[in-house]
Structure formats: structure tokens, C-alpha cells
Structure of Ketoreductase domain-containing protein:
Amino acid sequence: MKIQDRTFIISGGASGLGKSSAIEIIKAGGYVSVLDLSDEEDGKQLEKELGPSAKFFHCNVTETESIAKAVQGTVDWVKQTGKPLGGVIPGAGIGLPAAILNCKGQALNMDDVDFVLSVNFRGVIDLVRQAAVHIAKVDPEGPDGERGVVILVSSSSAFDGQYGQVAYAATKGAVASMALPMSRDLAAWGIRVVAIAPSLFNTNLTAGMSDRVRKAIEDTFVFPNRAGNPPDFSILVKHIIENPMLNGAVIRLDGASRLSKL
Ligand SMILES: NC(=O)c1ccc[n+]([C@@H]2O[C@H](COP(=O)([O-])OP(=O)(O)OC[C@H]3O[C@@H](n4cnc5c(N)ncnc54)[C@H](O)[C@@H]3O)[C@@H](O)[C@H]2O)c1
């Protein structure tokens, strides 16, 4: 599918992998609707930084109404720009590391579990389902009749989760598991679904990691022997949008890294 003159909704687009995807899409002539927790002032600043092809909407993906407002805002913006929706990247995600039983023998806090689930799992499905209603109404494009692409953000912890990642790994495993059934559900509407499963990437999410943990994870990268940087992620986003044969897949983006137990 062509990126040029299409609009992509990106949750978590104010930072890290989401922001880099926004930059890549704009570079390719596309438009982005950034949904994030930032306040209006930071949102305006982000719009200034990304330029006129970007629009910010304050959104908390744990709240259905908040998503509905941001999606409607995007639909109204699209009417003004005349650049139809082309896809959604539900990238908003949080870490919240905690073991099922910590070193003091205390059990995992269920409020923490619910919180990770509400952002990384419920928030993903909720945004995709609300955006898909509108993507399904776009005029089909090209010989395949494509209308749009959903790019899910899983994690290598979906497959080899580390100590303290029970809840996070479970949400990312759920996201990986969604790719195929979601692609089957949306095929009739000309919408593809692909999940990316990155290993360690240098973003705000991982900035607080201790040097010891970072080094241990980086050592698991076979080649190149380093953590990923956001542009390594966003060039894959661009390719997924453009390659019609990518559908229902989970793509590991990890330099052949397999996370150790730590
Ligand atoms: N960085 C990594 O190593 C890595 C590895 C694998 C997967 N991921 C996944 O990539 C995605 C992006 O993470 P990142 O590394 O760019 O992190 P990041 O912290 O730089 O960006 C995440 C963004 O999501 C937003 N966000 C969080 N909760 C939200 C909510 N309730 N509603 C709306 N927005 C919300 C944050 O404000 C932030 O802007 C996440 O889903 C993360 O789990 C990251």
C-alpha cells in the first residue's frame, strides 16, 4: 500500500518507536495522527516538531471514551486534509516489571497486573476495533483492493520473557497471538495485520535500565551486537505498509537475540 497521502493513527506516537514511525511515515509523504498521554502543550510542541502532516490527540488507551474522542478527531481532521486513513499502529505500551513472587516472598500485585493488561492488551484491541470501523470505509486501493494495515507491537519477551516479566510477557504474547486471527477477521475489508516483536530498543521505556541489565541483554544480540535504535524499527514499519504479502505474521526484530533469564 502506498504511504503517500494516507493517514496513520499511532498510539504512543509521542515517544520512542511510535514517534520514529511517525517520522518515517511523514518522510514517505504520509500523515500521522498521534495519540498519547501528553498534555495539550506538549502535544502542540510535538505537532511543531513533526510538521503540518501531524496532528496530536490527547488519549489514554485504557479508556474507551478517550480512544473514541481521538479517533473521531482524526476522522474530522482527515475530512479537512483529504488524506484517507491507511492504518493504525497501537504502539502505546508500558513495562512495570514485577516477579510473581519477589525476593521477600511477596506475591505479584494484581493492580499492577490489571494496569499492564489495560494498556498493553485491552488498549490495543480497543484502538484497533475503533479505528478499523473507519479504515473499512476507505476506497480500496490498487489491484488487491487494500484499505489499510494494522501494525501491532509485540516484544521478544512474548517468546523468551525474563525474570519479572510475567505480566508484560503475557500481554506481549497476547499481542503476537492476535496477529493471525485479526488478519483473518479483517481480510474481507482489505486490511492486513502484522506484528513486530522487537528485542531491546533504546527508548524512554528502557532508559531507566541498569548498566548491568542492559549489558546482559546486549550480549544476547548475535549480530549486530547492540540494542536497536528507533529508526531500525520504523524502516520495518514502512516496509510492512508497502509490502502487500506481509499479513498475519509476527516478525522478530532482534539481531537474533534470545533473552536470557538474567
Ligand atoms: N523499547 C524496547 O526495548 C521495546 C521492546 C519490545 C517492545 N516494545 C514495545 O514498543 C512499544 C513502544 O515502546 P517504546 O519503547 O517506544 O516506549 P516509550 O516509553 O518511548 O513510548 C511509549 C509511549 O506510549 C505512551 N503511553 C503509555 N501509556 C499510554 C496510555 N495509557 N495511553 C496512551 N499512550 C500511552 C507513552 O506516553 C509513550 O509516549 C510498547 O508497546 C513497548 O512495549 C519496546
Notes: The mean pLDDT is 97. The chain has one domain: 7-253. The longest strand covers residues 191-198.
